[in-house]
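Example 3.2
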Amino acid sequence: SPTPTAAASPTPTLTPTASVTPTATSTPTFTPSSSYTFTKTPSLTPTLTPSATATPSATGTADFTATASATPSPATGPSPVIYPNPLTGPGPAHLLLGPQQAGNVKVKLFTTAFRRVWQADYTGVPAGARLDLDPPPLANGLYYLLVETGGNRWVVKMIILN
């Protein structure tokens, strides 16, 4: 009888293969940075102090330059008086001057908003005189009278009630 024979099946041979692909990963890093520069420029206000120097020459003469400015001095003595005050009729108002107030007198009439309404100039006024003021017709209210004489100024309030 025949003998069975076994046939061997071939044994598979495994050859391991590996494939490596290098991968690079980068994450950008951002670090915010800020800087501020403050510069202060000093503000200087010049202060001028006038001074004068005189140097005599060999002949004994000196040259001087003088500049004069007239600044009204503060009012002295009693202020002028308006009569009647309040002014209620169509007649003129009277300005009574004091004993020191003489010469040229300038009178200006202003509203409370400091708008000039009227002005009059009087020359050769004797001390203690009474001046008749005849401004244009005025609305009811408060007015300021600026009186200037002899380098002095006075502000007198005048009320109009028609």
